[in-house]
Amino acid sequence: MEQPSEIAVDLPRPWDKPVVSLPVLAGLSLVGGQLQSFSLSANLYTLGTGGALIWLGLTNRLPRRPHSGRPMPGTIWWVLPVAVFGVFEGATFVLGSGDDFPTFSRLADPLLKDEMTRSAAYFGWLAAFWALVRR
Predict the structure, then answer these.
(1) Rounded to an integer, what distance in angstroms lies between the CA atom of residue 76 and that of residue 72?
(2) How many whole angstroms separate alpha carbon 42 and alpha carbon 46?
(3) Could you tell me the maximum CA-CA distance found in the chain, to the nearest angstrom?
């Protein structure tokens, strides 16, 4: 008697659909926007949501978008400003961020005083991170 062979079926995942993922990201960003900027609770919340997205990306729970394996031609024009921003932000943080030599985060503090602006910025961060995780 033969054993029945298993058939692999690629079922759609509910969190892969924009109808599900966008409201979840919006809810997370509304919660994150209510937290005081750069407070311990905001930092822990950011690390928690980022860690959860990294965990989802490292496990094989998410369907992957097709990728050729090599960077697209315009990638350098995105990597260069991000690298310059990271180096400048890190250097100013290490040298002691103050009023004379502020980091970009400190310069953005007046913009992030409003909860809705913070929520919108948080949503942009989560949406960009979600797009990277799905790669």
Answers:
(1) 9
(2) 6
(3) 81
Q: How is residue 25 annotated by DSSP?
A: H
pTM for this predicted structure: 0.64
Angle value at C-alpha 109, between 94 and 37, nearest 5 degrees: 90
Alpha-carbon dihedral angle through residues 109, 82, 126, 96, given to the nearest 10 degrees:
-40
In sign, the C-alpha dihedral spanning 94, 111, 31, 65 is negative
* Apex 19 CA angle, 16 and 20, nearest 5: 55
Between helices 40-58 and 18-34, what is the axis angle to 10°?
Answer: 160
- Kindly report, residue by residue over 22-73, the tens digit of the pLDDT: 888 999 999 999 998 778 898 899 899 988 888 877 776 666 666 667 777 7
Per the CB < 8 A criterion, the answer to whether 93 and 103 are in contact is yes
Residue 38 · residue 88 · CB < 8 Å: no
